[in-house]
Specification:
Elements: H1 3-36, H2 41-44, H3 47-73, H4 90-95, H5 102-136, H6 140-168, H7 175-200, H8 204-217
Helix pairs in contact: 1-3, 1-5, 1-6, 3-5, 5-6, 6-7
């Protein structure tokens, strides 16, 4: 794989991951309104809001990542041109550079604050209000119904951000490098593949179709 192809792979990967962080933040706001302020939900969450949120999330990650990608591509890279990873991630790419990347690493950290830490913080704040509201509900059935509203989103958030922080915030030396590579599969492969199933489990039509399929297979 050429250097251009490696950077292209990293750009597509990082763009989708950054966009998912921002979209998960928007989804937490959706859950917050549905549970904490249900009377304003229909007026706030509509098709226009959803379309604008997706476009802004993609554009923001696209523009920020393009700046980081362009700056990294200007480095000098001296062999061996082999990375110890499943794909072209930024840390193993920078290990191949013979230029001083210290300033660039600070720039990447600031980018991480914008597209990872800020969305994660807003998600935490949203769920603090959500949990507080759920605990104030008197009936058990009401609590269960309110919790089921955000259970799918919370599951994805825990898997995605949990694996993301484990990979990029824990030192990757020796045996930890193999663990880090295995964890990277969670947010690059497992989470995207499981998203349709996690979010569809609460869909009544999906559950009925799944029961029919299960009965058909085991007849």
């Amino acid at each position: 794989m050429s250097l251009v192809a490696c950077f292209s792979q990293f750009y597509v990967f990082a763009n989708t991951e950054a966009s998912e962080c921002l979209i998960l933040m928007v989804m937490s706001y959706d859950r917050y309104l549905a549970i904490c302020n249900p009377l304003r939900y229909n007026s706030m969450i509509n098709k226009g809001f959803c379309v604008k949120s997706v476009i802004v999330s993609w554009l923001l990650s696209f523009l920020l990542l393009f700046k980081n990608e362009f700056d990294a591509y200007k480095f000098d890279f001296c062999g061996p041109n082999v990375i110890d990873h499943f794909f072209c991630d930024l840390p193993p790419i920078l290990e191949l550079s013979c230029s001083d990347t210290s300033i660039y690493r600070i720039q990447v950290s600031l980018f991480g604050v914008i597209v990872v830490m800020f969305p994660f913080t807003m998600i935490i704040v949203s769920y603090v209000f959500i949990i507080t509201t759920i605990l104030s509900i008197q009936s058990i059935s009401g609590r269960q119904k309110a919790f089921s509203t955000c259970s799918s989103h919370l599951t994805v958030v825990c898997i995605f951000f949990g694996s993301l922080f484990s990979v990029y915030m824990v030192p990757t030396n020796g045996e930890l490098l193999a663990i880090s590579k295995a964890l990277s599969l969670l947010y690059t492969v497992v989470t995207p593949l499981s998203n349709p199933f996690i979010y569809s489990l609460r869909n009544k039509d999906f559950r009925i179709a799944f029961q029919k399929l299960k009965q058909f297979l085991f007849i």
